[in-house]
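Postdoc handover notes: sequence design on the structure in folder B. Input tokens:
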């Protein structure tokens, strides 16, 4: 979704010769997951490479409705995070550990911001603590699993 949005924005802006071109790109991404339900938690941390890119994304997606993976309609609400900028987000998350079964769910930084055309390799942020993946037919919220382990 982010790559597609940036690609379309950048293609459309380049086609307008009278406008000053500012690329839409992002350089940090983290999508927290609920491994019990095999769905995301409904929010993400994204750092855009410029305020203009963030504003374009806000205009395109804030209050937009779409169907979620669980069949319910969702409304996208974009807010401002407590930590701003790639470096602040990286610093916040690199000290964290994430209970997941694969590195694919860790936060990532892109050293060359992704603009929808380039496929810069992600650098992982934080560390993974091993947990066993929950089978898809067993839908239990991850917080319930943690509470049950403590008892």
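Designed sequence:
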């Amino acid at each position: 979704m982010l790559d597609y949005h940036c690609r379309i924005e950048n293609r459309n802006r380049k086609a307008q010769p009278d406008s000053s071109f500012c690329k839409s790109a992002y350089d940090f991404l983290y999508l927290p997951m609920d491994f019990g339900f095999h769905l995301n938690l409904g929010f993400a941390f994204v750092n855009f490479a410029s305020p203009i890119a963030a504003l374009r994304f806000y205009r395109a997606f804030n209050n937009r409705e779409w169907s979620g993976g669980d069949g319910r309609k969702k409304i996208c609400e974009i807010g401002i995070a407590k930590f701003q900028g790639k470096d602040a987000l990286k610093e916040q998350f690199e000290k964290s550990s994430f209970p997941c079964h694969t590195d694919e769910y860790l936060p990532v930084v892109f050293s060359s911001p992704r603009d929808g055309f380039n496929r810069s390799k992600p650098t992982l942020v934080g560390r993974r603590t091993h947990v066993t993946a929950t089978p898809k037919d067993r839908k239990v919220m991850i917080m319930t699993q943690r509470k049950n382990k403590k008892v």
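Context for whoever picks this up: The chain has four helices and ten strands. Don't rerun without checking with the PI first.
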